[in-house]
């Protein structure tokens, strides 16, 4: 049953990165849009993410519940030593959701709309940035559970160049996903070309920030290169991601919306697989050389079994309902 729970944990993180990432990316694209096109971009963004923007956070909630119930040692370590970036990330989610609701459903349209727009845009950037920092902290070996001073225990456990680089890489990936997903929702050829250009810029940003991640990992002696290129799965995954990206750019001018989304999602999936495969089931690397494992640090056997059954039964209700939500709004928009 432990592996069932781990599968749901990985799937929830994966889905949050894909769906929630594209959600955040919409705000990132709006942030980097000129004033001339912001209104049109805002309208497109609302039409695309409006129906499901709240549903995307369901995957984050599932991941947190799985860690809390099934892996209490891992949950405790993360919530203590990464308390600050977790709070900032949650603050970004709350601020973004509030701004999104008020700027579209506020009864009075006044100058506050400008403030709501800014909050939405910057919180869309901040949230995936700190999500990337949190992810980097779990594998960088910077968490010092034996520290007795505030800075080493609660600041330097996540505030480092590797985490910052991964944060910017996550932002670029989210922007890239959003641009690819929105291309198929544009009304005019001009808008389509604008979002294709944004996808290219975000892709360049991902390449640059991704290169920085590798350089900083090497300088800080984090074995990222070995994790990705030291095994067959990692090499195959990165090769597949590269090939899918080439196909994506060769077909992006064509009206093949579904294919583009599949290719973008597949690329991100392969990157996530390549990064996590080598050190699985270790999920947190500690500064003292120890680690926290999803197998060795799992909760009580009965708790894991109950959680696994709850997830299996819950998925029978959640997944069809989510599909129907997306389907109904697509039909409504036609």
Q: What best-fitting shape do the alpha-carbon axes yield?
A: globular
Number of helices: 13
User: Portion of residues in helices?
Assistant: over 70%
Determine the N-to-C terminus distance. 43 Å
GO molecular function: electron transfer activity; oxidoreductase activity, acting on diphenols and related substances as donors, oxygen as acceptor
Protein name: Cytochrome bd quinol oxidase subunit 2 apoprotein
Membrane topology: Multi-pass membrane protein
GO cellular component, one term: plasma membrane
Key traits:
single chain, 334 residues, mainly alpha, two-stranded antiparallel sheet, 13 helices, globular, Cytochrome bd quinol oxidase subunit 2 apoprotein, transmembrane
How would you describe the overall organization of this protein?
- Keywords: Cell membrane, Membrane, Oxidoreductase, Transmembrane, Transmembrane helix.
- Belongs to the cytochrome ubiquinol oxidase subunit 2 family.
- By secondary structure, the protein is mostly helical.
- It has one domain.
- The chain contains 13 helices and 2 strands.
- The chain has helices at 2-31, 35-49, 57-70, 72-81, 83-105, 112-139, 150-155, 161-183, 189-219, 224-229, 232-251, 257-277, 301-333; strands at residues 282-285, 291-293.
- A hairpin with a 5-residue loop joins strand 1 (282-285) and strand 2.
Write the layout of secondary structure elements.
Layout: H1 2-31, H2 35-49, H3 57-70, H4 72-81, H5 83-105, H6 112-139, H7 150-155, H8 161-183, H9 189-219, H10 224-229, H11 232-251, H12 257-277, E1 282-285, E2 291-293, H13 301-333
Antiparallel strand pairs: 1-2
Helix pairs in contact: 1-2, 1-3, 1-6, 1-8, 1-13, 3-4, 5-6, 6-8, 8-9, 8-12, 11-12
EC number: 1.10.3.-
Membrane topology: Multi-pass membrane protein
Protein name: Cytochrome bd quinol oxidase subunit 2 apoprotein
């Amino acid at each position: 049953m432990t592996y069932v729970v781990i599968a749901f944990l990985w799937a929830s993180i994966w889905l949050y990165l894909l769906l929630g990432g594209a959600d955040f990316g919409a705000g990132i694209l709006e942030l980097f849009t000129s004033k001339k096109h912001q209104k049109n971009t805002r309208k497109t963004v609302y039409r695309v993410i409006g129906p499901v923007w709240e549903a995307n956070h369901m995957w984050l909630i599932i991941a947190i519940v799985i860690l809390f119930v099934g892996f209490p040692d891992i949950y405790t370590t993360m919530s203590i030593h990464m308390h600050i970036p977790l709070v900032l990330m949650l603050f970004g989610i709350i601020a973004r959701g509030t701004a999104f609701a008020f700027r579209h459903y506020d009864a009075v349209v006044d100058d506050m709309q400008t403030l709501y727009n800014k909050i939405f845009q910057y919180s869309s950037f901040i949230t995936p940035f700190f999500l990337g920092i949190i992810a980097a902290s779990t594998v960088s070996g910077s968490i010092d559970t034996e520290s007795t001073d505030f800075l080493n225990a609660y600041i330097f456990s996540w505030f480092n160049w590797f985490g910052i680089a991964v944060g910017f890489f996550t932002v670029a990936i989210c922007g890239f996903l959003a641009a690819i997903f929105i291309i198929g929702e544009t009304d005019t050829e001009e808008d389509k070309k604008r979002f294709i250009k944004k996808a290219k810029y975000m892709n360049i940003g991902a390449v640059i920030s991704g290169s920085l991640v590798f350089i900083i990992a090497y300088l800080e002696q984090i074995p990222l290169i070995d994790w990705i290129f030291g095994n067959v799965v990692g090499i195959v995954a990165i090769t597949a991601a590269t090939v899918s990206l080439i196909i994506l750019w060769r077909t992006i001018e064509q009206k093949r919306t579904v294919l583009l989304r599949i290719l973008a999602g597949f690329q991100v999936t392969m990157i996530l697989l390549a990064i996590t495969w080598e050190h699985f089931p270790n999920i947190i690397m500690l500064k003292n050389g120890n680690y926290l494992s999803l197998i060795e640090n799992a909760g009580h056997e009965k708790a894991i079994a109950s959680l696994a059954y709850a997830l299996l039964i819950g998925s029978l209700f959640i997944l069809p309902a989510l599909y129907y939500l997306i389907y109904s709004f697509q039909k409504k928009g036609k």
